[in-house]
Amino acid sequence: MSTLPKKLPAFVFAVAAVIGLLLPIAAYHAGSQTNHLRFERIADEAVDRIAMRINQHISLLTATRSLFEARGGNVSHEEFASFVRHLNIKEDFDGIQGIGYAAVLEPGSDAQVRESLQRDYGVNRMPFPQSSEDLRTAIVMLEPPDERNKAALGFDMYSQVTRRAAMRAARMTRERQASGMVELLQEIDNDKRRGFLVYLPYFARPSEGSQDGLANPTDQQAQGDHLQGFIFAPFRTGDLIKAALSGSQELPLHMKIYDGKPDEGRLLYESPGSSSAAPEDVVRRSLVIAGHEWTVLATPSSGFEEGSEKGIALLLGMCSLLVAGALAASIRSQMKALEASQEVLRITESAAAQKDFLLQEMTHRIKNSIARVLAMARQTAAHANDLDDFTQSFTNRLQAMATSQDLLTQAHHGKAALSDLVHGELRQVFGESFTGLSYSGPTQELGMRTTQALALVFHELATNALKYANLDEGGDIDVRWNRGADGSLVIDWRERGSVDPTAIQGTGFGTKLIRSLIEGELSGSLQRNMQPEGLRIRLIIPDPAA
Prior knowledge:
Elements: H1 3-70, H2 77-87, H3 89-92, E1 99-104, H4 110-121, E2 137-143, H5 147-150, H6 161-173, E3 177-178, E4 182-183, E5 194-203, E6 227-236, H7 237-245, E7 253-259, E8 267-270, E9 283-289, E10 292-300, H8 309-383, H9 387-411, E11 416-417, H10 418-430, E12 437-440, E13 445-446, H11 448-468, E14 476-483, E15 489-496, H12 509-521, E16 525-531, E17 534-541
Parallel strand pairs: 12-14
Antiparallel strand pairs: 1-2, 1-6, 3-5, 4-5, 5-6, 7-8, 7-10, 9-10, 11-13, 14-15, 15-17, 16-17
Helix pairs in contact: 1-7, 1-8, 8-9, 8-11, 9-10, 10-11, 11-12
């Protein structure tokens, strides 16, 4: 048969497989896109939760400004504290540190601020730090009055560049404005968190006067807009995001939030754990918080479950391969049909050769059986005291031969122990009265093929020993086995006694049969060494369970 027809099934399989795999590849790509869209919806939901949560918090500033407008700017500390207390921010608004008011200061009003802080909060502090900016502010009210918030009282937020930028934007737009990333003054312990502030300016009507150091409507620093101060709220970013994302269903994503463009130095928040997602799996979103832009990068977490699309693609791929394989197998079977006639001829010739071998083996086994029976009779008669003793011993040895044959029969249905095989096969040859037999080794179960082959091998070795080793003159036989490092079975057969010179050649049919069984049937190896004290044989069987 030429080279092309031999390669035809493989060629057909390759072509069919390539064509068949185009569909699952497309399905797999579509599944990946679907999974990415699913995760984008999850990321959008997370961003919406954050935005909604922050807007709820910021709405408190609008309500607080309404209080100032309703009181015409004359809001006492007691009214402010009562108003904030009823908002329940600690229970209902996680992440917000408090609500405060930073008043625009008139020149020379520092002492008045100190006096109000001492009166309202018990804090003896002047406005800080000193600043040369065109506007000075001081935190004069900040609720709830815990130790963290008291640390910020009197601080001129307009003196710090990040806070000042947000305050200027709020003043220009008259709307709420978030600052960039800052370290809050409330971070008084070692566990400092990143945060931000949201400002809402309060402008007084021209008829409203000033109090406690607030700028009056004619102050030039107010530039004609009657700016009185800023209602503000400080936020801990981590606490706020965790509160926003917590709910009845945890979102399976890992999130990083940056103040502006993604940069490690501007990282506002990162979810616990780590993410090793590929760049194409990253979902990027822009989130505008009170006029300030955040960048959100979301990646799937270990809890993200992909849809069945990729599994369907894999199934399609397997089906395509099966179809390609079936087509190639069909072509191959047609080619095999063309080879059938040649195979029949080969099998016929092989069967004829096997038949001749079996006939030769049967003849040899019959001769060995006769020789074994005669040797057993001779040996039994040599040690028998009378006819009854001979009959009993000879019957027992014949029974041992039958027991060994039963062991071989049982091996057809399961496993046979090597120790049972050695004992049964050798005792049927030498009899129970023979004291020169010893065998030992670890527990070893043999498969059917190995049992049948080794039964013949031990039979041949025992028969030859009975013929040539002169065991009646005080000789002995020792059989030991062990496992090799590679899992093979190693059997050592040792004979000791006077040696018949005719046994040295080792070229008879029995020896050939042993070698064919070990090397041909069991793919093992045989080492035969005839020494002056007796025969030494080592059998190595790679797979004894076969």
